[in-house]
Amino acid sequence: xxxxxxxxxxxxxxxxxxxxxxxxxxxxxxxxxxxxxxxxxxxxxxxxxxxxxxxxxxxxxxxxxxxxxxxxxxxxxxxxxxxxxxxxxxxxxxxxxxxxxxxxxxxxxxxxxxxxxxxxxxxxxxxxxxxxxxxxxxxxxxxxxxxxxxxxxxxxxxxxxxxxxxxxxxxxxxxxxxxxxxxxxxxxxxxxxxxxxxxxxxxxxxxxxxxxxxxxxxxxxxxxxxxxxxxxxxxxxxxxxxxxxxxxxxxxxxxxxxxxxxxxxxxxxxxxxxxxxxxxxxxxxxxxxxxxxxxxxxxxxxxxxxxxxxxxxxxxxxxxxxxxxxxxx
Length: 329
Fold this sequence. Notes:
By secondary structure, the protein is mainly beta. The chain has a single domain (30-328), classed as YVTN repeat-like/Quinoprotein amine dehydrogenase (Methylamine Dehydrogenase, Chain H, 7 Propeller). Helices cover 5% and strands 50% of the residues. The radius of gyration is 22 Å and the shape is globular. The N and C termini lie far apart (49 Å).
């Protein structure tokens, strides 16, 4: 009897050992997206689909545009009158906008990139739209002005918007990015300024005591689930819950420039000296990953099919770029 019990116990333990445990967390891997040895600085990335991705950048006075078709990357001819490009956003494979230095706005119609007359010579840092006839562009103050550039584009005409000084308590002279979802639209900028479009105008939306350094970029998954990142001396991360912003300032992490999200509690963020990692908005946890570069990361984009692209580079001295792709095992 004892021998029988021992045999049954051994068999039971063997079966338990054979049962698979929970799947391990996927491991992120960063790799070079394409050879950037000869590129300028790269600062914007966006795609209409996983097999239709755009990266923009360049050098002073020269725009640079790269495209991925699902099989390979190639450089696409940029308009000869376009200056260094900073950001890119679009609506379809034949309707993409890129903005940049000295008022540059370029448009892709499915065959050719051409410049549009923005009506300003201010440096433009960000572009976003809910549709081709409802586009906002943000940037630095035009020469001789003291308020950030805000342009609305209806598909034909660029109209400047004068930000009310009462909605700019931080006296910011630059807005760095604009982004929205489900009808909610924010722009973020210098000295922690956050403004929101209320349907009639742009109004300041305080982000808390820790919002005391520049906010550089933002992304989200719903109108009540948005993350903004920034910081110059050290990182700032702000979360929007639909009614207000909460900002944290984690120690030991430099300034952040980039964020993208495809799941509510899984933001990928990037910043100076090649810092990349994940941020969990609910818990505030940050976890670093190895990006394989020490160049500043300026933009991130999740293709929704398992890849995250990161671009960046050097924007002073000898301009140079980096383009990376993140996959999960």
